[in-house]
Amino acid sequence: MSKTTKPWVMRTYSGHSTAVASNALYRTNLAKGQTGLSIAFDLPTQTGYDPDAPEALGEVGKVGVPVAHLGHMRQLLDQIPLGEMNTSMTINATAAWLWGLYLALAREQGVDEKSLSGTTQNDIVKEYLSRGTYIFAPEPSKRLIVDMIAYGIENVPSWNPINVCSYHLQEAGATPVQEIAYALATAIDILDAVRDSGKVSPEKMPEVVGRVSFFVNAGIRFVEEIAKMRAFTSMWDAICRDRYHVEDPTLRRFRYGVQVNSLGLTEQQPENNVQRIVLEMLGVTLSADARARAVQLPAWNEALGLPRPWDQQWSLRLQQVLAYETDLLEYPDIFNGSLVMEKKTAELIHDAHAELDDVLAMGGAFSAIDELKARLVRSQATRVARIESGEQKVIGVNTFTTTEQSPLNGGVESIMTVDPKVGDELVADVQAWRATRDEAAVTAARAELERVARSTDPADNIMLPTIALAQAGGTTGEWANTLRGVFGEYRAPTGVRPGAAPRGEAFAALVQRSQAITARRGNPPKILVAKPGLDGHSNGAEQIAVAARDAGCEVIYQGIRLSVDEIAAAARDEDVDVVGVSILSGSHLTIIPRLLEKLRADGVTAAVVVGGIIPPEDAVTLTGLGVAAVYSPKDFSLAQIMDDLLDIIDAR
User: Which position among 537, 588, 618, 631 bears the catalytic label?
Assistant: First the structure.
């Protein structure tokens, strides 16, 4: 038998409710054979709000774990040895703060920072383009990333301070060519900024390059995905060698982790998601020369809601069977010499080079956000149109839809729910935390944080006052609000432009319906597409906005993270026919009743429709409150949704 290669790090992306509950889940998963942590934070933590902030209402603990202060970090990592664990934190706008809490905890435990290994995602470009949990504008955000890299290379050399994340680009519609080009453009932008900052000596730059890691997506077209990863590997090696003059080949390695595609998981026949996940995993494990260093798999039922521990165990077991039962790890790269793979890889490299050169000509990824966002919305619209027309087959959705009742959904709750009391408990927790700390020390630490944020001196690094604030007992909201006072806040472009995708006969008929409504009453049907709360996953809202315009409607879409008051004011001032609300964070039962109440108080008579990951029982509750229609991921036909909306408008 050939010598067996060491398996990749196996993770599950998890966190929910509270730090205590999440810690119990982590320790259980580690006992089952998981070999690394991947921490999911809730939306208030990701966007810089404490649990008692008005913006956090209904969002606390819903899609991840709330971490507002050092006490929560202690609870989260209780009995987990920091010096031995490889910890991945999916955190971006507040990455410096969460890393500061982690480092403060390590110091408290007497763990040498040089022994710490792990990753902070810290890729803000993809937040502007797809995921939406940004706070600050591009330039101050870039400065925070540079400071983290500069601190890490001197003090935490085994940590990956940035994990350039193309995962969410594919979720937002990116083709393989776009995914490669935009991720590499982001890495170049960051490395150029570090090089030019004066915060890292030239002789340290090869080490900086060697600490840049990536986090990719793997879709169902797994042969093409293998070629994509081989192209990524080849192009990154050339960039490191030619642009940054890195001679050591070990520092030029394309080091990446992966979560396979969640966008393709379906609510219909969700058991089909298991084979999708397995096939997608092959795309990042079959090619030894381009194999992932860490893999985390979604659960089969993520299109339905929050997975249970058993669902996460199933995903972990998929990895373990591949790594330990098959002979995959006994061989070198099985695609070396393959004419088909070499040709496909070369095609992707050629096309990705052209796309990358185009982005660099626009000034780089940070400067080209508006254009890149529009390109992704257009690519997503094209993908959705192919599924809707049947050109792109999705089993159980647009073909082979006849099915038996799945036993996976019977007998027990098929998803996990967060106790509504969690939000109230965390509000009391953070208020009690503030009451028992040294307020003078917090005030002094915040003043130093503000001073450093305003400083242009290369000797000043945001990580030092950040760690000091964490040690003094500062909170997530206080850190973020201090920097909001210096940097302000940012609203990213929506990328929504008409005519983003080819439309068929169904949309031609919709345009005629819209024209008839316009002729009858003198103004076109008008729809407000709204994204309330802290949920930044805007792909669905963007596609509805584009489709409504293509159907002949006038569309108001102002982007993400709107308050209930802002939505109601827009509905009133624009005199819309329909308010379409998109929520994917699970906060619909908190936000929608407040919105309905505010609309009624403002005299708005527009119909309200809601879309998101909404369980059937919640849909019944919402319609009972007066919501005209509820849509979930199973409702993939944009033409049908537009037809429904015009029916609602016609009936007014």
Answer: 537
Enumerate the CATH 3.40.50.280 domain ranges in the chain, comma separated. 505-650
- Is residue 537 among the annotated active site residues? yes
For tokens 């006490």, what's the residue? 71
- pLDDT above 90: residue 306: no
Active site includes 69? no
Query: Where in the chain are all domains bearing CATH 3.20.20.240?
Result: 9-330+337-398
Is the per-residue pLDDT at 252 higher than 80? yes
CA-closest candidate to residue 48, choices 477, 475, 561, 429? 477
Average the pLDDT over 475-500 and give the result.
93
**Has 245 been annotated as catalytic?**
no
Give the sheet arrangement for strand 86-90, strand by strand: 13-14, 37-40, 86-90, 117-120, 159-160
Whole-angstrom distance, CA of residue 384 vs CA of residue 135: 29
Fold topology of 9-330+337-398:
TIM Barrel (3.20.20)
Per-residue pLDDT tens for 159-169? Answer: 999 999 999 99
CATH of domain 505-650: 3.40.50.280
Q: Could you report the per-residue pLDDT of 124-134, keeping only the tens digit for each?
A: 999 999 999 99
- Packing angle between helix 222-242 and helix 339-361, nearest 10 degrees? 50
Calpha distance 500→478 (Å, rounded): 41
- Average pLDDT over all residues of the chain: 94
Name the active-site residue from 72, 168, 344, 373: 168
Active-site residue among 102, 128, 134, 167? 167
Burial class (CB in 10 A: 0-12, 13-18, 19+), 382: middle
Q: Is the pLDDT of residue 1 over 60?
A: no
From the candidates 13, 26, 182, 256, give the one annotated as an active-site residue.
13
In this predicted structure, the answer to whether residue 142 has a pLDDT above a threshold of 50 is yes
72 is catalytic: no
The helix (run of H) or strand (run of E) holding residue 389 is helix 369-389
The reported pLDDT for the residue numbered 410 is 56
Interval 566-609: pLDDT, tens: 999 999 999 999 999 999 888 999 999 999 999 999 999 999 99
- Angstrom CA distances, 84 to 91, 95, 117, 155, 612, stand at 21, 21, 8, 17, 39
**Cα–Cα dist 179/188, whole Å:** 14
Q: Is 650 left (phi over 0), alpha (psi -120 to 50) or beta?
A: alpha
Catalytic-residue membership of 102:
no
Cβ neighbours for 485, distance < 8 A, ≥ 6 positions apart: 450
Q: 647 catalytic, yes or no?
A: no
